[in-house]
Amino acid sequence: MSLESVRAFFSQQAADISVIETEASSATVTLAAETHGVDPAQIAKTICVRVGDRVMLVVASGTARLDNRKSKDVLGGKPRMLDAEEVVAATSHPVGGVCPFGLPTPLPVYCDVSLKRFDVVVPAAGAINAAVRISPDRMAQLVDAEWVDICQ
Fold first, then answer.
1. What is the distance between the alpha carbons of residues 134 and 72, in angstroms, rounded to a whole number?
2. Could you give the CA distance from residue 3 to residue 127 in angstroms, rounded to a whole number?
3. What angle (nearest 5°) sits at the alpha carbon of residue 42, between those of residues 13 and 152?
4. Beta 20-21 vs 43-51: how paired, if at all?
5. Do residues 128 and 27 make contact, with C-beta atoms less than 8 angstroms apart?
6. Average pLDDT over all residues of the chain
7. Which of 17, 30, 124, 151 sees the fewest Cβ atoms within 10 Å?
8. pLDDT of residue 1
9. How far apart are CA 74 and CA 61, in angstroms?
10. Which pLDDT score is estimated for 35?
11. Residues linked to residue 68 through DSSP beta bridges, in sequence order
12. What mean pLDDT comes out for the span 104-125?
């Protein structure tokens, strides 16, 4: 179960961070911002993309959009979003709950600099009604992410 893999990840890697489960869905940036009482930009959305034969995760501010030119330059090709079935196969997380935590196998993770303006961001936690509150730098450190500038 995806939510359980995220709980196990935090239990082992950062026991001070609790997974927040809510009654309301937080499957979109707008819903997540409303549910967690933050600005939509403070939601750390995770996008599962493919560049050539490589699958990777990009974590960015909820209001940021991938910039095709920057992404191509940094990632080595044009990123293409995976469909829902491919996302679950790669991450074990459903669309709306995708995060860089508790993955079945490691994937490259890129955190966009759009997150750095916040002290705390709110990424999903493996389910459409689960999230965590975490500093962007700590999130990147926990998942061995590379900081990049690939969004508009």
1. 28
2. 6
3. 110
4. unpaired
5. yes
6. 96
7. 30
8. 61
9. 18
10. 95
11. none
12. 97
